[in-house]
Design brief:
With 284 residues, the chain is α+β, with helices and mostly antiparallel strands. It has four helices and eleven strands; from the N terminus they run βαββββββααββββα. The strands form two sheets. Strands 2, 3, 6, 7, 8, 9, 10 and 11 form an eight-stranded antiparallel beta sheet that branches. The chain has a three-stranded mixed beta sheet with strand order 1-4-5. It starts with 6 loop residues before the first strand and ends with a helix.
């Protein structure tokens, strides 16, 4: 039977529309139980057009979608403030005060110029970073879920190709909790090819997903997924998704960006040989 845990569903790198003529894309996010704060609007000026690509289209706009929370969860609509934290209980006489852990402050998001393929993509931030309310689980894509985070910071970017990138930093009460969450993500992505193909079959598509780990460090892993995406968490159509995981102390950071493979899209392809350098940059 379904879990009663509140599930925050995060539609990362979801390009909700891709037109054959203009490769127009939109970035969306969603939530159950706790609704994120309103995401930043993209820059009003269009990003410069790269030679050999179609004219720039409007930058993708993050949105929030409300879904039904678990029966025991408090419902929050888009734009509402999260519920205030419960007041801590005072220990009675002769009772030891419980140990409390304070989650560390999330690291500053990467500067746009430090993102992968920045020379060609010319990334720009989509406004300032957002602090988003967390639930017991946060789904990153069709394959991976973060569990037990104490805080969540998100920064969106848009490229000159009108494709998105998102950096999510999750902090935990302890380093051990962060290590466990990171290892769960590694396990999730080790099975991502099977998960993606199952998603494709359920949507009536050819199961053509291919997923590989492209780089690894002591506390970091990078992955590439090439597939025909299923509308929802990802855009429909041929694409390549790049995913980077890094644990630093009690923080887990996830960076994702997408390359769309469309007839009118960019001919440029990112070189995965730079993925180890990207992991080192995230672990700064």
């Amino acid at each position: 039977m379904p879990s009663r845990k509140a599930l925050i569903v995060r539609t990362t790198l979801a390009l909700s529309a891709v037109t054959a003529a203009g490769a127009a894309v939109a970035l969306s996010t969603g939530a159950e139980a706790a609704t994120p704060a309103a995401a930043p609007a993209p820059p009003t000026a269009s990003a410069p057009t790269t030679p050999g690509t179609s004219p720039a289209t409007p930058a993708p706009t993050p949105t929030a979608t409300r879904t039904t929370p678990a029966p025991t969860a408090t419902e929050h609509r888009t734009g509402d403030r999260p519920s205030p934290p419960a007041k801590p209980r005072t220990a009675g006489p002769g009772t030891a005060e419980p140990t409390r852990h304070t989650a560390p402050k999330p690291p500053e998001p990467l500067p746009a110029k430090s993102l992968p393929d920045s020379e060609a993509a010319r990334w720009k931030p989509m406004g300032p970073a957002n602090t988003r309310p967390v639930g017991p689980e946060t789904r990153l894509n069709e394959c991976a879920t973060v569990r037990g985070a104490a805080s969540w910071q998100q920064q969106g970017y848009v490229s000159a190709f009108k494709t998105p990138a998102i950096e999510d930093s999750f902090t935990f009460a302890t380093e051990a909790a962060a290590t466990g969450a990171y290892q769960n993500l590694v396990t999730d992505l080790a099975h991502c090819q099977d998960t993606s193909r199952r998603t494709q079959r359920e949507a009536g598509l050819t199961a053509d997903a291919r997923v590989e780990r492209t780089a690894a460090t002591a506390d970091g892993n990078a992955y590439r997924r090439e597939w025909t995406g299923v509308a929802g968490m990802s855009a429909p159509g041929a694409q390549t998704n790049h995913v980077y995981l890094v644990r630093r102390g009690a923080t887990v950071t996830v960076l994702q960006f997408t390359e769309m493979r469309t007839a009118s899209g960019p001919r440029h392809t990112y070189d995965i040989r730079d993925d180890r350098a990207t992991l080192a940059t995230l672990a700064r």
